[in-house]
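Suppose you are handed only these lines of text.
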Amino acid sequence: MTHSYSTDSRQMLGRLRAIMAEDAGGQTRLDQITRLIAEEMHTEVCSIYLFRDEDTLELCATEGLKPESVHETRMRLGEGLVGRVARTGKVINTDDAPSAPGFRYMPETGEEAYSSLLGVPVQRLGEKLGVLVVQSKQARLFSDEEIYAVEVVAMVLAEMAELGAFVGEGAAMSARHQQAVLFRGTSAQEGTAQGRVWLHEPRVVVTNPIAEDPARELERLHEAVEALRVGVDRMLSSAKGGDKDQLDVLEAYRMFANSKGWMRRMEDNIDSGLSAEAAVEKEQSAARARMTQVTDAYLRERLHDLDDLSNRLLRILTGQGTETGAEMPPDPILIARNIGPAELLDYGRALKGIVLEEGSVGSHAAIVARALAIPLVIHAARISNEALNGDQILVDGDQGVVHLRPDESIVTAFRDKMAMQAEAQQRYASIRDKPAETLCGQRIKLKMNAGLMADLPSLKGSGAEGVGLFRTELQFLIRNHMPKRAELSELYARVMDAADDKRVVFRTLDIGSDKVLPYMKATDEPNPAMGWRAIRVGLDKPGVMRMQLQALIRAAKGRALTIMFPFVAQRDEFTAARAEMDKALARERILGHPIPETLEVGAMLETPSLAFAPDSFYSEVDFLSVGGNDLKQFFFAADRENERVRKRYDTLNISFLNFLEGIVFRCATLQTPLSFCGEDAGRPVEAACLAAIGFRTLSMRPASIGPVKSLLRRIDLGALRDVIHTERAKGSQTVRPAVTEYLRDQM
Ligand code: PEP
Ligand code: MG
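From them, the structure of the protein bound to phosphoenolpyruvate can be written out as follows.
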């Protein structure tokens, strides 16, 4: 049946604004709003249901249903038509509610007499807050215009609820943002932290959802969109020639920013009485609702882009940049969808923990977090929607778990865990100056991995016997321009100064694979990890390598210098790289710069091919360092960045240990100094096994030195070797269970 009513959303919003301007309590306002909507919609009933908890809705105000059912009638999420609107976030419009699937009769409300029902979700940027319902006795379907009008009011309601403007004490909305929420993500840096939420990009707060002067609002929208377009064009021109993914995203931004449909929908929203901000947000909410339903990963990404763009637009409109004027809470824990390494460095050590919705273990942000020893959890889905600035939060970087607004019992358990960790730290501090000497008298050299200036204080604090791996590419990654030679040489000199007379192994630039320099032309490769990276780039484009080698020689100022080339796969690559070093030395000598008193040039063993290289290679290098992260990924043919396959293969798999033992044997026979510098060196059980099969130098994150040393000092390598041999003889796939049991018995 068609209707014969017209609803002017602008008029309705005008009256709504008058209600909001009055000085009234929350409940009174809700009551007034339901009365107003029922009148404007020419329906007998208008009700507001709000979430009481995660899955319970409560009737909070009504015009037309029995007044005594207010705050009494509750329903579960998905129950009845109202519950269905709440669950699906979709509008229900029916002229025969009692026959509609899922109808639930609630006698206490007296709603049996109503035939038509229009239910509209109340949601703010995809966050479900409740349902706005109108019902009428007359069997009729509501027109698109009416539905739109109710949606617009629901949007304004959502804003008000969020602000707590009319929700009374203990009411559903504020309760929702007080609930404890647990997030299970992935650990990217161990450690625990307790603190307060600090949103990297805080939600923009819209305080004026209703327009006073629509013409002015349209003008504001157009100005803001223009500013947005200019900004996107600027980003695009500065990103030209850069990372392809970034360019794709920016192209999508530009497409959306110029989209007539997007603009028209926002203009329509203003036309219906919303302010420019609320108009953007209404459109953004609709896009977020679509996002949850799209299964295609590419489309979902594009909707994410649109979401980002809407946020930018809102920031332009409200003038709320990342700088919202809010003060960083004590013990800040950063929450973001994702973050770049440079932004993270800006925060520096001020942060107690980091939680990201996206990210990867091998990302640059993760590398920086690790360098700063800040607990990091990634893949915490939707946390930036749930968390509010200042919320209490616990980050368990060991388990990859985050507790937002935790209960007291969780806080207590967490504090116990932190206390135990602090105790362990003290234990490690007490052995800091003692050697990593096993019970059988074997000394293992423990060194640290570094790459940032922020790492240097750890050199003294951790008890490291030098820097076994200095990842020079980090300095290139955190800038948006190619660093200058003088800049680099000054930095390397500071690293050597900080190390005193301890050796620092500088690894030359290892770019490519996941390490893409924003200012270098990206190459589109099907398999970047096995592509044009590290020494391959260095030899093909020797300009940067020469500049870096010069910077290193100058930084040494005559002191001993150690460098290592990454990702060498065959002998001639090393020979060519070493020749570059010799040329650089000759050039520096001619220029009158002091030459290092000793120079050691080594290679990283990261491809299985080097394990089988001719003896002459082993004699040519001054030393070898196993890059276990890459070596393991190529040994098992399992991408180190891909969580799904990475975890399938254990470092303590007997095949891998056999392989590593073969390398140890060759180095021993040919007298090539050998070390191990992948992440596994910093895991105590793995480190113990590496020592048992013959590694005598391990380089790891500074925070791992204490735990590794503590374990090594309590074990007998001969006995551990026997355990490994026994498992090998038995044909076990991995030695982990036996080794873990043995080590547990030694504690
Ligand atoms: C490795 O591959 O083990 C290594 C130390 O190098 P990166 O992790 O920087 O690739
Ligand atoms: Mg590597």
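What can we learn from it? Residues 469, 471, 510, 606, 627-630, 677-678 surround phosphoenolpyruvate (ligand 1) (CB under 6 Å). The CA atoms of residues 444 and 696 lie 5 Å apart.
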